[in-house]
Amino acid sequence: MTSPAPTAAPTARAAATTPAAPGVLTAGIRAIGLELRAYFRVPDVVFFTFLFPVLMLGIFASAFQSMGDVGELPDGTGGVSFAAYYLPGLLAAGIMLSGVQNPAIDIVRERHEGWLRRLGATPLSPVSYFIGKAGVTVVTALLQAALLLGVAVVAFGVELPTDPALWLRFAWLFALGMGTMTLLGIALSALPRSSRSASAVVIPIVLVLQFISGVYLQFSLLPDWLQNIASVFPLKWLAQGMRSVFLPEHFAAAETGESWGLGLVALNLAVWLVVGLVVARFTFRWQRRS
């Protein structure tokens, strides 16, 4: 008489019924939802990173609309309104605000309040955490760009490009710029020593770069030494690329080298993307520095 087959061990049965831990991508997607809910629950963050470019467009367009068009040709044609002129730079600035300012300050706060230390003690992968941060910056930047374009068209009568090639250019500029700025934001989060100093460290950097990178002031009117400094950083190149999408072709004469220089735009953004990736990889910690 044969003996009955052995039953499965209790531990094996328990393991079979225990749900597996979510994968890196699944956990990252869940983190995006949590980050978005947290983002839109803080009014000051929404204002200074989401609505600020829209507010600046309204201020500049309203303040200078009585001065006529910008960049008219000798025959009086080819000019654009001040709203249309400022739109590309503000789109670039919006990407920087969403990708650099918000994540940098947010990560510092979470680290110094102990949230990252608790997350580090869980099975959550740093990759999933970064997916959550990157996801919320992409979503908010897309919504911000759509709102900015909508306000420009509806409120100020800006005419958007009709050439599909220009929108394709906008897509790769947006994607490359968003990736670069997000990685730089994560890397910059290692600089502030405390959550109290995060805003004091990050916001001045972002604000100064906007003024010297052709967002609020015409880049060619800046002193050469200031142009050289701005040309080291990615916002200048992202703003230049955005102008190539939304401004007439003859505006390229005011750029460095009297051309849009899209190859240099892509190269500089790609270099800064690699810099941000390397610095973020070697400086990110779950726990704050002693």
From TrEMBL:
Keyword Oxidoreductase: no
Domain ABC transmembrane type-2 as annotated: residue spans: 44-290
InterPro entries in the cross-refs: ABC-2_transporter (IPR052902), ABC2_TM (IPR013525), ABC2_TM_bact-type (IPR047817), ABC_2_transport (IPR000412)
Keywords on record: Antibiotic resistance, Membrane, Transmembrane, Transmembrane helix
Membrane topology qualifier: Multi-pass membrane protein
Primary location class: membrane
Transmembrane segments: 45-64, 84-108, 129-158, 170-191, 198-219, 260-284
Localisation per UniProt entry: Membrane
Keyword Glycosyltransferase: no
Domain of life: Bacteria
Name of the protein in question: ABC transporter permease
Species, as recorded: Leucobacter chromiireducens subsp. solipictus
